[in-house]
Amino acid sequence: MQFETTLAFARKLDRIDPLKNFRTLFHLPKVKGKTAIYFTGNSLGLQPKTTKNFISEELNDWAALGVEGHVHAKRPWLYYHKFTKKGLALLTGAKSTEVVAMNHLTVNLHLLMVSFYRPTKKRFKIITEAGAFSSDQYAFESQIKYHKLDPNKTLVEIKPREGEHTLRTEDILATIEKHKDELALIIFGGVQYYTGQFFDIKKITQAAHAAGAYVGFDLAHAIGNVKLNLHKDNVDFAVWCSYKYLNAGPGAIAGAFVHERFANDASLPRFAGWWGHHEKDRFQMKKGFIAMAGIDSWQLSNHPVLPAAALLASLEIFQQAGLKNLHAKSLLLTGYLKYLLSQIDAAEEKFAILTPSDKRARGCQLSIFMKQKGKKVFDALTKAGVIADWREPNVIRVAPVPLYNTFEDVFRFVEIFKNALIR
Predict the structure, then answer these.
(1) What distance in Å separates the CA atoms of residue 116 and residue 105, rounded to the nearest whole number?
(2) pLDDT at residue 364, rounded to an integer
(3) Is there a contact between 142 and 194 (Cβ–Cβ < 8 Å)?
(4) pLDDT given for residue 394 in this prediction
(5) CATH 3.40.630.190 applies to domain 55-318
(6) Other CB atoms within 10 A of residue 95 CB
(7) Which fold has domain 7-47+323-422?
(8) In sequence order, which residues have a C-beta less than 8 Å from that of residue 95 and are 6 or more positions away?
(9) H/E element, 52
(10) What local confidence, expressed as pLDDT, does residue 266 receive?
């Protein structure tokens, strides 16, 4: 599509947008009485208007039924973890038996590293991207130390080339090849939180397996944002949170994926809890853990119904919108934002976009690297009603989300940004 730099063009795109009515399904924040330009769904998604109804239904069943809600509620609580499986499988390109909502992201990361990071004297190294999200870094370091290994000798962090901000796939693959004889685990973010780079999951997975290592991904910034095919790509495991693009609320229940190849692999060590125990025998309260088939065996505790209800409300919207429609709009919306930004400072004297220009290597987030007046520009955006995200030392992250952002949002953001640059 040939983009244009006018408000009329943005409004034209909104009129023909097949997803335009989905914006009305969300509560939109206001700044000084006016609807905000909300570009931080990559940090916390907006609240669906149906969320309150979903949670209220569970509260009403609790009030009316008490403990009997476990079996007689509209959505029986005993089986609540099953209700989000279809939506999560759709978003991750997985089978329903391979995904489950549980715990929080870092808890899930630790649980799955117990199973998939099993260092030996020969194979002990972990490869990840440099500058991974801090919680992941802490998890890696503590897991390594738990095995009485030295993080400085164990963790291999791949940095971009000099003068570049994102990683080249060939450099990732070359690093895997270099360390293949000592490699135990490769774990990357699906989408890098700081730069917005969408890594090539399929190629990384193939290289990991060729090297004899397990591979996992932190999909916090990927799920609900980019197209995922975890089952076909043969990924071993993945974890994610649900409060960003999945719009399940602050501190929402997270999720995990384990490929069906490991569905009945009793040799994998795991930390067990009663909700991972064989369902038919769970309430016999006997010693001896018998694992459920698939990812469900990694569950520890009974399902938190109220947070899961919020996730269920959002997943219903994703299924109504359709992933094909969402991905198509996301490409167009982010492409339009990138185009308009490129018209401001073609020589990149004042700012540069860190996120890859190749649309296959990004989602809806663009990370704007400010070469001058970064915090001042960000403060001006905030004052003008833009809710975006500042990342030290000099990056403004913006994410036009296809479910609730518009092309006019993009146009107006760029106009405000442009004016803030010249002040």
Answers:
(1) 16
(2) 97
(3) no
(4) 94
(5) no
(6) 17
(7) Aspartate Aminotransferase, domain 1 (3.90.1150)
(8) 89, 231, 260
(9) helix 51-65
(10) 81
Residue spans of alpha helices (H) in 78-193: 80-83, 85-92, 105-116, 134-146, 151-154, 169-178
Q: Which residues contact 240 (CB under 8 A, 6 or more apart)?
A: 105, 218, 219, 220, 222, 223, 246, 254, 255, 256
Which ranges of the chain have pLDDT less than 70? none
For residue 18, what pLDDT is reported?
97
**Residue 216 and residue 139 in contact, taking contact as beta carbons nearer than 8 Å:** no
Q: What is the rounded CA–CA span in Å between residue 238 and residue 219?
A: 7
Reading the block at residue 336, the tokens are 């339009």
Each residue of 281-323: pLDDT tens digit?
888 889 999 999 999 999 999 999 999 999 999 999 999 999 9
Q: What are phi and psi of 67, to 5 degrees?
A: -65, -25
User: What burial letters (b/e) apply to 198-237, b meaning 16+ CB within 10 Å?
Assistant: bbbbeebbbbbeebebbbbbbbbbbbbbbebebbebbbbb
CA dist., res. 95 & res. 105, Å (int)? 20
- Looking at residue 203, its pLDDT comes to 98
Between CA 351 and CA 334 the distance in angstroms is 17
CB 402 within 8 A of CB 393: no
Listed by start position, the domains of the chain span 7-47+323-422, 55-318
Structure token pair of residue 266: 């009793």
So what's the pLDDT on residue 95? 98
Residue 184 CA: distances (Å) to CA of 60, 174, 251? 49, 16, 31
Q: In sequence order, what are the residues at sequence separation of 6 or more whose Cβ sits closer than 8 angstroms to the Cβ of residue 407? A: 10, 11, 13, 14, 17, 333, 336
- Measured distance CA(189)–CA(106) in Å, rounded: 13
Average pLDDT, the chain: 96
Please report the pLDDT score of residue 229 as a whole number.
98
Cβ neighbours, 10 Å, residue 353: 19
∠ CA 402-407-411, rounded to 5°:
135
What pLDDT sits at residue 214?
98
User: What CA–CA distance (Å, rounded) separates 273 from 254?
Assistant: 17
Burial class of residue 359 in the structure, from the number of CB atoms within 10 Å of its CB (0-12 exposed, 13-18 middle, 19+ buried): middle
- Confidence (pLDDT) at 252: 98
